[in-house]
Design brief:
Layout (H helix, E strand, L loop, with lengths): L2 H19 L2 H13 L9 H26 L8 H17 L20 H10 L3
């Protein structure tokens, strides 16, 4: 497939998806602007950027589900259920960012693995830091 064919195919896909979702991508910008009351958002850490990216993906899925449920019931691509399921998956990923990191407890069964004894002792010595 050459670049012109790819672009033509992409344009057809855009037209079909746009028929399903309209300008939901634009609405997301308006929603985010409204939520912030026009104030700038400071994204300073990689985690901030990850969280913002997940938030916008979730909004995109919600906008698509809303369009399918209330505005256009004859969708060409993903179903309303798909949009809700995708959003719930992104929500779970997003929620995991706010979980405490798991702690690992190192347990040594005396003499069971002598080859690891020195490393275990080093770990134990570092626990008081």
């Amino acid at each position: 497939m050459n670049p012109e064919e790819i672009l033509r195919e992409n344009a057809e896909t855009y037209q079909r998806k746009n028929a399903d979702y309209g300008q939901s991508w634009y609405a997301i910008g308006e929603i985010l602007y409204g939520l912030t009351k026009g104030e700038p958002i400071a994204l300073e850490t990689p985690e901030d950027f990850v969280s913002f990216g997940l938030f916008t993906r979730r909004l995109d899925k919600l906008a698509r589900a809303f369009t399918g449920e209330f505005l256009d019931h004859d969708l060409n691509f993903e179903s309303i259920r798909d949009s809700h399921e995708d959003e719930s998956t992104y929500a779970a990923i997003h929620a995991s960012l706010f979980c405490e990191p798991e702690t690992v407890e190192y347990v040594n069964v005396s003499g069971a693995h002598p080859e690891y004894e020195a490393a275990y002792q080093d770990l134990r010595a570092g626990e008081g830091d």
